[in-house]
Design goal:
Elements: H1 5-16, H2 19-23, H3 33-46, H4 53-76, H5 79-91, H6 96-100, H7 104-127, H8 130-144, H9 155-163, H10 169-190, H11 206-220, H12 228-231, H13 240-269, H14 275-296, H15 307-329, H16 336-339, H17 341-361, H18 369-381, H19 384-387, E1 395-399, H20 407-412, E2 427-431, E3 444-450, E4 455-457
Parallel strand pairs: 1-2, 1-3
Antiparallel strand pairs: 3-4
């Protein structure tokens, strides 16, 4: 019900800048015109209806889950497995930012574009549809101008060419030229080659990178490997029953990998081609590794960055289950009970891991951005959502300022609710005691800060 920090800044710049200034901010530390263009459209639809943000994010997530279902079904040829992968995506604790923030649109777009790249390259590899390679390359350009960290996906294009066992020099050169053009354009607009708002080389070390990679892998298997302010609940704080579920889920995951390797052996022994399956395995591992490495070079690991590699882990599981199904079908002498083992195994993995994810979602209050979100939701609830348009022109006094509200927030917060985006005459003043007020006038609203609970009282 309220905006703050990056979300509030995004909203304010939309109203203060022209379309070209908003979408192509030359001189900014980041150059993300594709994301800013879509955000410009979204903000034009939302305007002052900020309560639409979360439902829109949920609809985007639902559409993404449906696409994952379709893609996983194509890979595995097992509808139940595909349905399970879509469900696992939706219940994941990594969704907190995509759903809860206006800027979650950027993370969602990154996942969607990376899925489209993977899907079209998958069709290029499996069905020899050459045009799909260039469609994937187009989405690669779009994703790099949505979030620069996805530039690391370039190797999957070369891998796809190798998987096709073709000497397509034009396809290879096209990928190189596309990535070079992206780097040149970024350098011209931001003044630096290294992606991000800060120079990665200032904080980068090999040791920290490997530590971050390990943390991200553990995160994907249910372990909150980082500090509490980044995940809401550390592994040490995790209750024993949840830990047991994680351990059991890990055992099932190892069994799935074992059966996948065993299935490859069965297919090979029966003179079935397994080259494409092996290439696709490496293909999805490259997607997982690339999206992990892109965030491992920073000084911290935020859970929202793990959502993309987690998606490709789900697709890799789909590939493994599909391979297991193919091997099972040529071993017709197996008992009926064994015929259902693949479905039973993936169902067991879901039954074990879904409670882990849902429990992790109950600990969002501990993640660094949610206490502030709660605080500014409370400010909105005690002012605009209580008094409506009567809030405009009021003097809003807040007793206490332990969280140091910025001048930008004080000047901009209430503009969000005004159809004219001005909130003229509405001012926020902080005082240390009610004694400073004197007589309470009709144009005054007095709030008291409750820092212990991150709320305000009227």
């Amino acid at each position: 019900s309220g905006l703050y920090m990056d979300d509030l800044y995004m909203w304010s710049t939309y109203g203060e800048q022209s379309f070209l200034e908003y979408v192509f901010p030359v001189g900014s530390t980041r150059f993300r015109p594709v994301y800013w263009f879509v955000a410009w459209i979204e903000l034009g639809i939302i305007r002052y209806h900020i309560t639409w943000i979360m439902p829109i994010n949920i609809l985007i997530a639902a559409a993404t889950a449906y696409f994952i279902y379709l893609f996983a079904k194509e890979i595995s040829q097992m509808p139940w497995v595909a349905y399970g992968m879509g469900v696992m995506f939706l219940v994941s604790r990594f969704a907190y930012y995509n759903i809860g923030q206006l800027l979650g649109l950027m993370e969602a777009m990154g996942i969607i574009f990376s899925l489209l790249i993977a899907h079209f390259l998958y069709q290029y590899i499996c069905y020899e549809r050459n045009a799909r390679y260039y469609v994937a390359l187009l989405f690669y350009i779009l994703i790099c101008f949505t979030h620069e960290r996805y530039i690391v996906l370039l190797p999957v294009f070369f891998l796809s060419i190798l998987a096709r066992r073709t000497k397509d020099l034009f396809a290879c050169v096209s990928a190189i030229l596309a990535s070079a053009g992206i780097i040149v354009l970024r350098t011209l607009t931001t003044g630096k080659v290294v992606p991000g708002g800060t120079y990665v080389t200032d904080t980068f070390s090999i040791q920290s990178m490997f530590g971050s990679v390990l943390d991200e892998i553990l995160y994907m298997f249910g372990v909150n490997a980082g500090p509490e302010h980044l995940n809401g609940m550390t592994w040490a704080q995790t209750p024993l029953p949840i830990k047991i579920l994680v351990y059991m889920g890990g055992v099932v995951a190892i069994f799935i990998v074992y059966k996948f390797i065993r299935s490859l052996y069965v297919l090979y022994s029966k003179k079935r081609k397994i080259d494409t399956i092996i290439w696709l395995t490496v293909f999805f591992i490259f997607f997982i590794g690339g999206t992990i490495l892109s965030s491992a070079v920073t000084i911290r690991v935020e859970m929202r960055w793990i959502y993309a590699p987690y998606v490709f882990m789900l697709l890799l599981v789909s590939l493994m289950m599909g391979t297991w199904k193919r091997a099972k079908e040529i071993r017709i002498q197996e008992k009926v009970l064994i015929q259902y083992l693949p479905l039973a195994t993936v169902t067991l993995w879901m039954v074990l891991m879904i409670p882990v994810e849902l429990y992790g979602r109950t600990k969002y209050d501990g993640i660094y951005l949610f206490p502030n979100q709660k605080r500014y939701n409370s400010l909105a609830d005690e002012t605009y959502w209580k008094y409506g348009d009567d809030i405009f022109g009021k003097e809003i006094y807040i007793i206490g300022n332990s969280n140091k509200m910025s001048d930008f927030t004080a000047k901009t917060f209430f503009k969000v609710y005004d159809r004219k985006r001005k909130a003229e005459g509405t001012v926020v003043k902080h005082i240390s005691s009610v004694k400073e007020l004197g007589q309470i006038r009709s144009n005054m609203i007095v709030l008291k800060e409750d820092p212990a609970h991150n709320v305000f009282s009227d």
